[in-house]
Design brief:
Layout: H1 10-17, E1 41-47, E2 50-61, E3 73-79, E4 97-101, H2 130-136, E5 140-144, H3 158-172, E6 180-189, H4 191-201, H5 209-215, E7 226-230, H6 236-247, E8 252-256, E9 269-273, H7 276-296, H8 315-333, E10 344-347, E11 350-354, H9 356-363, H10 380-384, H11 397-401, H12 413-418, E12 433-437, H13 447-459, E13 463-467, H14 480-492
Parallel strand pairs: 4-5, 4-6, 6-7, 7-12, 12-13
Antiparallel strand pairs: 1-2, 2-3, 3-5, 8-9, 10-11
The chain binds 3,4-dihydroxybenzoic acid (DHB).
3,4-dihydroxybenzoic acid binds near residues 105, 106, 191 and 233.
Length: about 500
């Protein structure tokens, strides 16, 4: 792939700035950010028996001064029809939404995605991934790579800065590239789901500006249109308490036998039982959660306060359980027999009660307390919050106080803030449309995390399509027809 060591074109800058006067930016070294200089290859894919032809622009470095040009790249795929004045699914070169799937898992470095090789899609012969479906449905696909925790330059907030820089590249080139940069829809799973949420939440926030400047990100805005997230491993600095709120009392666990080496590999689980010390820690963390939830002042769609009492019971717990009830009810309505699920009370074909503690036992504990900020710095998140000089750090006051290693350090609070979307979600948050999915068989983080995000977004006036698909484990992109139906609907409906 060719690399372009050029100065930015004044022509495109004038376009992007929308001003009559051409402005120049001094970029003495670095990669050009003009999409028009990119080469492409012609490719095609078969989706539901239909061949979709597209042009592939791959390995585009999306910042002028990359810290890691192997990962700070974006692959852009544009349906061939858009070069011939054609339309697909009612979209044209001017109106086609831009599907922005990241491939991030485990907060690891992630390469730009390639249709047919998507990391989270079904791997069975003949099945297609989200990028292939997107192309068939007339979307422009733009899949950004991003730095991750195992590299010295990939520590927090590198991955979110990279996704924002990729969005800026697309907006900067909007006038010269097929697809509508006002219709960018992000998608990701797990750590990638969390980053998809954060990308939507943090659009144009000044906190990230110094990092973007340093990379030579394109001079453009970085807000997006809509967010899709599967099982987001988000709100990391409160996820330990949330986990114990859900799993306290579940002392047997099935834990990954590797420390989040790569979430794309098959997950092998080892059995264990919490030690007395871990059981104590679980109790302490659980006890923190009600004050945290109450401090958020969340409300349900009817405007009722979502709160927890000191024991962790109350309207917030009922709110989380209501999504489990809805998921179970849809199974019953489809004729499924759920009589073996002892956490459900079913009367006359209706779920009349959900026993949340029994649900947690059935779902099973997968992490030992603290689930994310490990006392011995052994979690992937410890590495995420490291620095170039210190590979792993704590990021919560609790784990820092209870640290196993006296020399262990605590991450800078501003960096922790930059990774938590809750600090940025408000009425001013740009995306009006959000879709969040977490399977009922997912124990990688507490269901409370997605429920908190949902309530906060709804309370900020956003439309949130949140559901817990029945028996689905920690995974994403398993309902692509519904996902793209939702995207089409959000793009076509009037704003607001
Ligand atoms: C992922 C899963 C985890 O359990 C976690 O703590 C972080 C990331 C993932 O699958 O991306």
């Amino acid at each position: 792939m060719m690399k372009f060591k050029t100065t930015l074109l004044t022509g495109i800058l004038a376009l992007a700035c929308g001003s009559g006067a051409a402005k120049t930016i001094e970029v003495s070294q670095g990669y050009g950010l003009d999409f028009r200089t990119q080469n492409y290859t012609r490719q095609s894919t078969v989706v539901n028996g239909q061949t979709v032809a597209y042009r592939a622009y791959e390995n585009i470095v999306y910042v002028a001064n990359p810290a890691d040009s192997a990962y700070q790249t974006i692959n852009i795929y544009i349906p061939e029809a858009y070069f011939n004045g054609g339309s697909i699914n009612g979209y044209t070169a001017q109106t086609a939404p831009i599907f922005l799937p990241n491939q991030i898992g485990g907060y690891m470095p992630a390469k730009a995605g390639v249709p047919g090789k998507g990391g989270f899609g079904p791997s069975k012969e003949g099945q297609v991934d989200a990028m292939q479906v997107a192309l068939a449905r007339g979307y422009v696909v733009a899949s950004p790579g991003a730095r991750g925790r195992t590299a010295v330059t990939g520590k927090a907030p590198a991955a979110i800065v990279d996704l924002k820089a990729a969005v800026r590249y697309l907006r900067f080139n909007d006038a010269v590239m097929a697809g509508d940069a006002e219709k960018i829809i992000s998608n990701g799973t797990s750590a990638g789901g969390a980053l998809s949420v954060l990308l939507g939440a943090s659009g144009n926030q000044a906190d990230y500006e110094p990092y973007l400047q340093q990379l030579g990100a394109a001079p453009a805005k970085d807000h997006i249109f809509a967010v899709s997230a599967y099982c987001p491993i988000s709100i990391l600095d409160h996820a330990d308490a949330a986990y114990e709120w859900q799993f306290n009392g579940v002392n047997d666990y099935q834990k990954m036998d590797i420390s989040m080496i790569d979430y794309h590999v098959e997950r092998k689980l080892v059995n264990g039982t919490l030690t007395n010390e871990q059981i104590q820690i679980s109790g302490s963390l659980k006890a923190q959660f009600p004050a945290h939830v109450n401090s958020l002042r969340l409300r349900d769609p009817q405007g009722r306060a979502l709160r927890l009492d000191a024991q962790g019971n109350g309207s917030f717990k009922n709110y989380v359980a209501s999504f489990l009830r809805r998921s179970a009810q849809s199974q019953l309505d489809a004729g499924k027999d759920l009589s073996s699920r002892n956490w459900l009370t079913i009367r006359n074909g209706k779920v009349s009660a959900v026993d949340f503690a029994a649900y947690a036992r059935a779902a099973g504990r997968q992490k030992t307390p603290p689930a994310f900020d490990a006392l011995d710095l052994s979690s992937g998140e410890n590495q995420l919050f490291g620095t170039a000089a210190t590979d792993k750090q704590h990021f919560t006051a609790f784990s820092y106080q209870h640290r196993a290693n006296a020399q262990a350090t605590l991450a800078d609070p501003q960096t922790v803030k930059l990774m938590n979307p809750m600090h940025y979600i408000s009425r001013h948050t740009t995306p009006q449309h959000w879709r969040i999915r977490v399977g009922t068989a997912d124990s990688d983080t507490s269901l409370a995390i997605a429920a908190i995000l949902t309530a906060k977004l709804q309370n900020s006036g956003k439309r949130v399509d949140f559901a817990l698909p029945w028996d689905v484990p920690h995974s994403g992109d398993y309902d692509l027809d519904e996902l793209f139906d939702w995207m089409d609907k959000t793009v076509r409906q009037p704003r607001g």
